[in-house]
Amino acid sequence: MITIQFAGAEKDWKTYQSLIPEALASKNIETVFQRDVAPENVDYIVYSPSGPVQDFSAYTKLKAVLSLWAGVERVVGNQTLKAPLCRMVDGGLREGMAEWVTGHVLRYHLGMDAHIVNPNHRWQAGTAPPLASERRIGILGLGELGQACARSLNCVGFDVAGWSRTHKNVENVSCFSGQDGLEAILRRSEILVLLLPQTVETTGIINTQALSLMPKGARILNPGRGPLIDDDALLEALETGHIAHATLDVFAKEPLPEDHPYWRNSNVTVTPHIASETRPYTAAKVIAENIARGESGKPFLFEVDRTAGY
Fold it and tell me: Would you say the C-alpha torsion 158, 162, 168, 174 has a positive or negative sign?
């Protein structure tokens, strides 16, 4: 019998308290799944970072912490955690992110805002966009979500490039890495999508210097992490017109304060952290699969590199 503790907010417990046991039962794994368990008896922790900060030092037989979130910045630096940490990547996260990114890339590419918001009823002939194959899209971050977005954009026909910390080979994507690669992808990206994890190295990666390298009139989508962007630098680039527009789904502080300049800027679209979220039904299956792998001695899915921070 495997003992699993749920560490997270009450609302998350209500969502998962039946889904995870059902997913484990389908794999013939018998478990005790509870919120309140003596730490020394716990084999796995299902972790929701919306709950309180956890002290893992008393969990002497812990085999893994399985996060329900894709982002692990709230726990990855926890010095009391010695067991493997796995982030969440489920089908719902991938599909939701690809849909949000593709939708807003198409919105920018087709110039849809000018027609949807047209109070003066101007007939703007001669404004047809180029073909998708002539539009250069850049994706910073080529993990599971970044690659899902690249595949979706490729299906439409866009010229897609991607950047990652270490070099990757992704079909139909021009791949860049390292500082020189970062500068190169910034220079070519008419629409830039931010899907990097939040680490010391990526915080503020879109700063004044980075923005200056982008083509005049470029657009930015950030469904990744709010702190990737230096807000003051972006607002300045929007003010000068060097960056034409930004659609932001994530912010350094959430909910975005009512007095934040982004709300008042006509060249910023704010969406309330809805680009992608964990779907409980599919997430429960990922949790069950990882526990099954742990019990059979197989490598965990989506295990975090604690040195890299993601």
Answer: positive
- Tell me: pLDDT of 177 over 90: yes
Q: Go through the domains of the chain in sequence order and give each one's CATH number.
A: 2-90+278-296 (3.40.50.720), 92-270 (3.40.50.720)
Q: Residue 264: CB partners within 8 Å, gap ≥ 6?
A: none
Query: Catalytic residue positions?
Result: 225, 273
Length of the chain: 310
Single pTM value for the model:
0.93
Enter the tokens of residue 149: 């977005």
Give residues with Cβ within 8 angstroms of 87, minimum separation 6: 67, 69, 70, 71, 72, 302, 304, 310
Single out the residue of 197, 213, 190 nearest to residue 250, CA to CA.
197
The string of DSSP letters for 70-113 reads S--TTTTT-TT--S-EE----HHHHHHHHHHHHHHHHHHHHTHH
* Residues 16-42, mean pLDDT to the nearest whole number: 96
Tell me how many helices (H) and strands (E) the chain has. Answer: 10, 12
Paired tokens of 104: 């807003």
Phi, psi of 173 (to 5 degrees): -130, 130
pLDDT tens string 117-128: 999 999 989 889
Q: Is the peptide bond before 197 cis (omega within 30 degrees of 0)?
A: no
Alpha-carbon distance values, 104 to 101, 107, 185, 221 (Å): 5, 5, 19, 8
Give, for 158, the enclosing helix (H) or strand (E). Answer: none
Q: How far apart are CA 245 and CA 266, in angstroms?
A: 8
